[in-house]
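Weekly sync, protein design subgroup
Attendees: M.S., D.O., the rotation student, P.L. (late)

Item 1: inverse folding check
M.S. brought a backbone from last month's batch and wanted to see whether the design step gives back something sensible before we order anything. D.O. pointed out we never logged the input encoding, so this time it goes straight into the notes. Structure tokens as presented (85 positions):
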């Protein structure tokens, strides 16, 4: 997995910041780097739509409810990055 792609996805997640104000309270949150790896790994293994993978990774990692419109918007950005590589 290319480091550049991981960082691109992590940057998208960081810009989105689905945790909002809770992000500062999460121990070991590394700019969503781990979640980016999980999303990319899952997308290559599961062959599911990216929106489902993003939702699953983030809700399982943080036990949060995601805003549907933001999920759609940022999932499309992540999918575009994946398709570029």
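Designed sequence read out in the meeting:
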């Amino acid at each position: 997995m290319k480091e550049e792609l991981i960082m691109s996805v992590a940057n998208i997640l960081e810009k989105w910041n689905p945790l909002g104000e809770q992000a500062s309270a999460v121990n070991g949150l590394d700019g969503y780097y781990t979640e980016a790896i999980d999303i990319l790994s899952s997308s290559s293994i599961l062959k599911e739509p990216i929106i489902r993978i993003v939702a699953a990774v983030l809700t399982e990692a943080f036990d949060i409810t995601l805003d549907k419109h933001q999920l759609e918007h940022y999932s499309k950005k992540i999918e575009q990055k994946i398709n570029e590589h």
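Discussion: Helices lie at 3-16, 33-46, 50-62, 68-84. The chain has a mean pLDDT of 94.
Action: P.L. to compare against the previous round before Friday.
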